[in-house]
Amino acid sequence: MYTHFLIATDGSDFAWNGVTHGLSLANRLKAKVIFLHVTEPFPMFDWGSPMSGYSAGAKFVSYEEEGRRFAGQILGQCNAAADRRGVQAEAVHLENRKPAEAILELSKTRGCDLVIMAAHGRRGLARLLLGSQATEVLSFSTVPVLIVR
Predict the structure, then answer these.
(1) Whole-angstrom Cα distance, residue 95 to residue 18?
(2) Is the dihedral of CA 131, 135, 140, 143 positive or negative?
(3) CA distance linking residue 51 with residue 46, whole number of Å
(4) Per-residue pLDDT tens for 10-41?
(5) Could you tell me the end-to-end alpha-carbon distance of the chain, in angstroms, rounded to an integer?
(6) CB 37 within 8 A of CB 95
(7) Across the chain, which distance is largest between two alpha carbons, in Å?
(8) Which residues, listed in sequence order, are joined to residue 91 by a DSSP beta bridge?
(9) Contact status, residue 115 vs residue 107, Cβ threshold 8 Å
(10) 54 CB contacts (<8 Å, ≥6 apart)?
(11) By three-state DSSP, how is residue 37 classified?
């Protein structure tokens, strides 16, 4: 059945529900797992600054460093949880990418047969303004997608 999962996480409590659910399923099915955390592109303009658009250099470096630190922390927690459950896992951090695009690409290139991710459950205007990575993955994935609430 399913033998190779991609479990996406943004580090939120919602995403942790997806991680734990995916690990439980992986343990039962003896599947291997790839954990994925994506750092989105740096916002091009710092609208709060009088030098908006010009002061981004130092902030860009700080943004990248913080993204790597956060990804290491989150993926470390995921790997530790996989070890506790006896699940073979690897962690991947992709930078400067849109999450849905990275999830779709990695699941395809690495031969995953199930994508597991959490949905924040936004409704109405919040969903319209913030978008839905889960909806995009569901719409374009060529493999089954398990959405955990």
Answers:
(1) 21
(2) positive
(3) 8
(4) 999 989 999 999 999 999 999 999 999 999 99
(5) 23
(6) no
(7) 56
(8) 35
(9) yes
(10) none
(11) strand
Distance CA(36)–CA(78), nearest Å, equals: 10
Token code pair at residue 127: 């969903």
What is the SS3 assignment for 141?
coil
Residues 37, 87: Cα–Cα separation, whole Å = 18
> Could you tell me how many helices (H) and strands (E) the chain has, helices first?
5, 5
Whole-angstrom CA distances from 19 to 64, 129, 141 are: 24, 26, 19
Q: Indicate the DSSP class of residue 50.
A: T
**Predicted confidence (pLDDT) at residue 102 exceeds the cutoff of 70:** yes
The token pair that represents 78 in the structure block: 């995921």
Tokens 């734990």, located at residue: 20
